[in-house]
Amino acid sequence: MSSVRIECVAEGCRIGESPVWDEKEGALLYVDITGRKVCRWSPVTRQAQAIAVDAPVSSVALRKSGDYVITLGTRFAALKWKEELVTTITQVDKDKANTRFNDGKVDPAGRYFAGTMAEEIRPAVLERHQGSLYTLFPDLSVVKHFDQVDISNGLDWSLDHRTFFYIDSLSYSVDAFDYDLQTGKIGNRRSIYKLEKEESIPDGMCIDTEGKLWVACYDGGRVIRLDPETDNRTGGERSSTISICRLNPFLQNGLEMADTMSSSIKIESVVKEKNRMGECPVWEERENALVYVDINSQKVCRWSPVTNEVQSVSVDARVGSVALRQCGGYVIALGTRFAFLDWDTQAITNILELEQDKPNNRFNDGKVDPKGRFFAGTMAEETAPGVRARRQGALYTLFPDHSVIKQLDQLDISNGLDWSLDHRTFFHIDSLSYAVHAFSYDVHTGKIGTHAFKFGDK
């Protein structure tokens, strides 16, 4: 397993996307979609230059003759960097005033594939089936491959150039097509991997030197590796430098570059079996094991580094998080209940049922504070991909005496939480707020107070 060093090399993007290495210029090229900028970062000067454009710019590609071609609004356009000159090549979706291009990439023969989507009302919420997938050919002609797309996203080609891989995000599927490299035509569409809704939304995609696909999961904090031959997720490593654009409120959606050559961080897949939605890893010193939950499979799991095996206990509802008890065993956030779990007997003892008036809610992320109180929050389940009842969740605290208080309500998706090193600040994420919130914290009483500030913005 190679080591990986992650370094933030460019900051200030609102939505950084489409990283492309420009060998001729020795620079990393990328776009800031909503910032309406095409950017170029130099590893020599460690500075980024940018050219402002007149519409959301979603992807960029290199031209053999020099300079770039971009997807700008609903236009394919040429960009001359030194002159800062943009020239429209052609416009698509002329009958749709509310669409724009999204992800794009060049095929092995130099054709530029890019797809469109409706503008979002809010992230991942938009008018459905308004997008299409297009190809810009070297002679500047354009072909539409298909329409009825929700969010045209990740795309790439197999190493033998005979298969085209594609993601329409709200289908929650990675699809494959037969590909004719000579003509640029695609056919025989089929799904090779279907994500569960709770695995988050598939977004960008690339292929590695082993022919495995890497898929970024929007709003999920993960990148999954897929084997298109077996339709399975797989562990693995990168053996070359990769570029990653990420949404990060602390870095203002910065662009990162991962360098595998000089690092002290080792990333290893230790659980080989497939989890539908693995969450909440907790190291248990007493058992010398990694405890975690598989939310959608309704299991609490424990992995041993000695045997390299996973044991699990099945439960009767989705389990959002797990924490250690001082006396042994665990406390879990199960459905809308706090409950104890005895690992040896597999017995579950309910502590308290919450939100009985909200049958479509469940617990999500949870964590123990420095004094042993279990904080966990709830959320509404999705009724359709990307659709859920808003502001149905709350944040609760289970105290050692088994009493429970509600700390916050009107939440969408209660998620990440932690405390400052001096225990005076509590940090919390309500995912659809697109921000990390900070509150004053009284470690003696376990109560959160004044909302101090937040990082990030939509």
UniProtKB/TrEMBL annotation:
Residues engaged in binding a divalent metal cation: E17, N153, D203
Main location, first listed in the record: cytoplasm
Residue span, SMP-30/Gluconolactonase/LRE-like region domain: 15-229, 277-450
Name of protein: Regucalcin
InterPro entries: 6-blade_b-propeller_TolB-like (IPR011042), Regucalcin (IPR008367), SGL (IPR013658), SMP-30 (IPR005511)
Catalyzed reaction equations: D-glucono-1,5-lactone + H2O = D-gluconate + H(+)
Broad EC category: hydrolase
UniProt keyword Lipid metabolism present: no
Swiss-Prot/TrEMBL keywords: Calcium, Cytoplasm, Hydrolase, Metal-binding, Zinc
Gene Ontology CC annotation, any one: cytoplasm
Active site: D203
Record-stated family: Belongs to the SMP-30/CGR1 family.
